[in-house]
Amino acid sequence: MMLKKPAVFVNSTAYLSIILIVGIYYIVCYSYSFNFFFQDDYHLLSFVNTAYNPLLTFHEKLQALWSLHNEHRIVFPRLFVLIDCYLQGHIDWKVLNTVATLYYLGIFMIFSLFIKRLKLSIIYVVPIAFIIFQPASTDNYLWTISTLQQVGNIFWAMLLFYSVCFFSPKYFWVSIILVFVLTFTHGNGLFSFPVVALILLFQKRFKQLIIWICLMIFVSVIYFWGYQNGQNSNLAGSLSDPTRLALCFGGFWGSFVSIISHRLETYYQAIALGFIVFVTLLFFNLRLTYHETLTLFSKKYSTIQVKDSSVNGHFLLAYFIFFTITALLVTLSRSWSGLESSFANRYLHNSFILFVLFYCTLLYYLPTFKRSIVGSFLIIGIVFNTFSWYQNFDRIIYIKYLNQAEAFNYQQDKITIENAASFNRNIKDVLAQSFQNGVSVFPDNFLQPSIFNTANQIPDSSSQYNLVVSKDSLLMLDAKESHYLPKVMLKNTTLPYDGQAFMVFKSSKNTYIYPVLHQKSGRRRFMQLEPYFTKGFSTSVMLDSFEKNTYQIGIIQKINNQLVCHFTPQTITVR
Prior knowledge:
The chain has 20 helices and 9 strands. By secondary structure, the chain is an alpha+beta fold. The strands form 2 sheets. A 5-stranded mixed sheet has the order 1-9-8-4-5. A 4-stranded antiparallel sheet has the order 2-3-7-6.
């Protein structure tokens, strides 16, 4: 009885910790999502607008559903948004984004089920919660289309492998449904076919293997019918530098370390960790593959039946092969653009989910050291989770107010200044139509034209509003021809933090608003319980969509619960 009480306390603490970690993650996600599309979200919006157009035929609507987005046929992400529009009467990006991040919860649940299969207690699940439920990959936390594709792809792959390994063979039809959903959520879902084929071979399910191969051929044919390469894919360019290719491959596996800083030495540390993770997983999975191959082709082992413990290894093997293929695809298609390509924020979630795979693999193959493993990963998870929130919370706030500012800019001037002028031209008609037919609605927004009433405008030459204005640029990567777009960098070191501030660019014809990224306290000061934000801010604004004119620069602040615009003497001229 005395032994049970500590176990009950530990398990209760573990459950409460998981609930707290997950709860904070989703409360923040919903609070900082905003009901306005962001960049490529437009492609989801465009399909829904097409589906609601009574002048188009059913065939034309199917073509829109089937059309490529870069290299991917995103059928199910499009249907996901269409269902939301049907249920709510319009697209609600705030709700959509929060629901999309439930994919992380699904991934967590599958890992938890695997831990349960290893007959380990709930305490072994806690490090997984700390590693997964943090905001290091902000693109896959507050950007709906990226989350639906990039994270959804991992969830459906895991669920597919789980169904193949652990469901009864009579439920093989479930795996067939799942592979369709996976393939038409994200393009690399196609590569789950050979992975599952290998598992079926190892499990000696030969009839189902034949069905699976026929299905693979059929799906591949329809997928690549009318296929075109994406604009950022450049295989020849990536292969031109084998060293860079190898470094990018390692970076894919360890990129979560890059949240520490964006210095070159941090990238190399991440690459080193990535190769440690990859080589370790490769060792264990090659050993399993060798053993399974013997049972297939050696008469001595041919009568050995598939054991439950082997099936656990099959799940880990399938996941490892799938991620290895994904890493190769990313490096082969993107590494031409530089080492940073593997550290792109939209890929970063792969590395910390892979780190969980690394953890589960160690628990499975090294059960003798399970207490040391869980203790080590618990410490790593707590440090990583805490540091990730510190490092990225300012970015989370910034993204919310960026979407809010862009909603104002579009409502007032029918442009989004975060996007290039060519993008604004391309989306102009469809976006306008979506607001007319109710597919899109303008969200509640405290940024209103009334901010610029005379009573709310204060010309101010006070030193706390001083700005350092300098030229900046954005490199638009394209496999055929990259080019630079003009930006302006604005910095301030004296303005106290009093809630989110925005930059204002006002001409005789147009007024644009853009958020700033507030300066945060250093790590040591923050640990000494100083405020998260300190004096100063910076922001870099793209000018490509600005109309040609001279703009006076101002700063919007909330003072005494009222938004006030302080105009500075400084101006910029867009030619």
